[in-house]
Amino acid sequence: MVYIALLRGINVGGKNKIDMKLLKQTFEQAGMTEVVTYINTGNIIFSYKGQSKTELSRILEEAIHVDFGLQIKVLVLSIADVRGIINAIPDTWKNDKDMRSDVMFLWDEIDDETVLENLVITPNIDKVMYVPGAILWSCDKENVTKSGMAKIIGSKFYKQVTVRNVNTARKIYELMQSQNS
């Protein structure tokens, strides 16, 4: 089975620095196969047979703690999980000079449509939707500072998600598909 491990908060602002080559070795030593990293923000595609996603998260968090001395949350998603999220992203959503679009991958404890009730969504600026496993968010770049979603940093909600822009999310899925064939 092909999975993605999304690490929260590594190599951001000079904190929790982890070399991707060493991280790949950590995953391999933990029993993962066909390990591929994508960019420096903690996206690791791998294959594994036998454990639940929750158990894989625990194994990988422990391996990272042992090898790097860091307490990093790891969200593990199957290719089917990611496919559902990617298919829900409108084709017109991009992350470019005109538009900012993100996928906020949710930890299980908040993965429910009711999570939207606790978010500040600015009408006529934010485009926000829930899909199992994620909140999808987009707005025009010129309105980012007016967006309610841009103000989640530091909130309780923000600590229970890991964010990737839609371009990165689409590339992750593409890499997962190539490994799955």
From TrEMBL:
Organism: Neobacillus piezotolerans
The organism's place on the tree of life at top rank: Bacteria
Name of the protein in question: DUF1697 domain-containing protein
A Pfam family that the UniProt record links to this protein: DUF1697
